[in-house]
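ok here's the first one, seq then struct tokens
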Amino acid sequence: MHRSEFEAFVLTLPAATLVRQWRDDSVAKVGGKIFCLLDRDPGDIWLKVLPISFDLMIETPGIRPAPYFARAGWVAISAASPLGDHEIRAYIAEAHRLIAAKLSKKLRATLGLDQGAIA
């Protein structure tokens, strides 16, 4: 997934914001918390996944524990992985849901996030 596609998709998610930080990586946040990012070089997508997904995904070629983030259940998906854009978008949406669900009730309300839809 190219940067423009990644950024356009991320911004379709409720209350998602996008910043460029670190080495000009595209970093997606909800409520100020990171839920995924596009590592500009080499172009890997890093995102939060469920523990069971983490264990299964890191055994897939082209997917590895995300450096610095792995202990929190993050994977890095390279272009060499067998996942298509549709599957990657689904994982990004799930990462958004996982992080949004951890936000305080007050912040979710402020952001217009429906508790029932993200829990």
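and now the second one, same deal
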Amino acid sequence: MKFRFKPRNRRYTVLIVPEGSNPVFRFKFRSTLLLSVLISSITLITLVLVLFVVNRSHSYRIHTLESELFASTTQYQSTVDDKEQAIDNLLKELVELSEKSKNIESKMIELEKLEAELKSITGSGQLQSKLDTTTTPSEDIIGGIGGESIPLSDEEITTLVKETKESIVTSLSDLPDLQQKLEDTKATVQQYKEMMQILPTYWPTDSVRVTSQFGKRKDPFSGVLSLHSGLDIGGQIGDPIYAAADGKVIDTGYSSARGNYVTLSHPSGLLTNYMHLSKVTVSKDTEMKQGEQLGELGSTGRSTGPHLHLEVVKNGVTIDPELYLKVPGEDEGL
């Protein structure tokens, strides 16, 4: 025996009874329709919930992406700004480096001129030309500066880099030779300085007033033409008298012609005599340094007034002291 199950399709009636005397509304439907409506409603609600959850997730993801995009954009803009600032700084440093390289070239030229001047000093005892004291614009700006700011083109930047590189390479390649030249010249100058200390080059008095030069003159006492064997420098009694060069005191004393006197012997082989002193402040065999005091100016012996009579003796013969003496301040302005 076989049984067949048939779902019941019951009928339902829904009455809507309004207030008053309005007619009653009747809605008739079967159970299958109610079931379909319930299933559809549940499905729709589920779909709405799923869509809401998905939309919420997508909204959060979009918000996260927008935040990340904003942060990336900000970071990118900051990076771009930093790069531009770095490029500007590099350009400024390049310009400064270019100016410094020009200054290095200028200084090297000055050093070369200085080296030549030092050689001329040691060679002739006097300067042959003046140093070029022209300074670069950056070292001697008077007043303000201004003008329109025009960025350098790529071509100008490339040229500037090339010129700066060539200038620095040239300066660095020339520097060792110049340094060696200066070292050689320094040694020569040191030798020259030592030589000048043993030659009677130091002016022996505070006064520079020459009252009688070396050579032929009328004798101040007899009026007869005679040879003046030294240089007379006027001054005040008691003025200090200085050694014209390094040396050793080999004689001091007094005579009717010389008055109080001091004689120095110098490593160069020369002798110097200091006469008519009012006072001698050194003794025989004293080692003297150039510029040290050895007595005081006076008018003793055969003298018409306060002065120093200085003699330079070479191989037993007196020669003109002005061949050696350097007048204080004579090189100022060179």
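notes on #2: The first helix runs from residue 31 to 124. The chain has three domains: 11-86, 91-129+152-198, 210-323.
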